[in-house]
Design brief:
By secondary structure, the protein is α+β, with helices and mostly antiparallel strands. The protein has one helix and five strands, in the order E-E-E-E-E-H. The chain is globular, with a radius of gyration of 12 Å.
Length: 73
């Protein structure tokens, strides 16, 4: 992916095969936050693509489940 997505956009980190919420850029790396809670990670923008509709729906369900367990707000 050449340009940064909007903050809050859901993206796929192909290196980790994990969906994350784009949080910003620092020193050439992109900061991503897991939608179902957990530790943020950095990723090389070359390994990022926008999440598909199916991936966004799954991420939304994972977030709702984590929220119901009290793991995220």
């Amino acid at each position: 992916m050449n340009s940064a997505p909007a903050v809050g956009a859901l993206v796929l980190d192909t290196a980790k095969d994990q969906i994350g919420e784009y949080r910003g850029e620092w020193a050439g790396e992109w900061s991503l936050r897991p939608v179902d809670g957990g530790k943020e990670w950095t990723a090389d923008p070359e390994h990022i693509q926008l999440a598909t509709l199916e991936q966004r729906l799954r991420a939304g369900t994972a977030h709702a489940n984590a929220r119901s367990r009290g793991e995220v707000l």
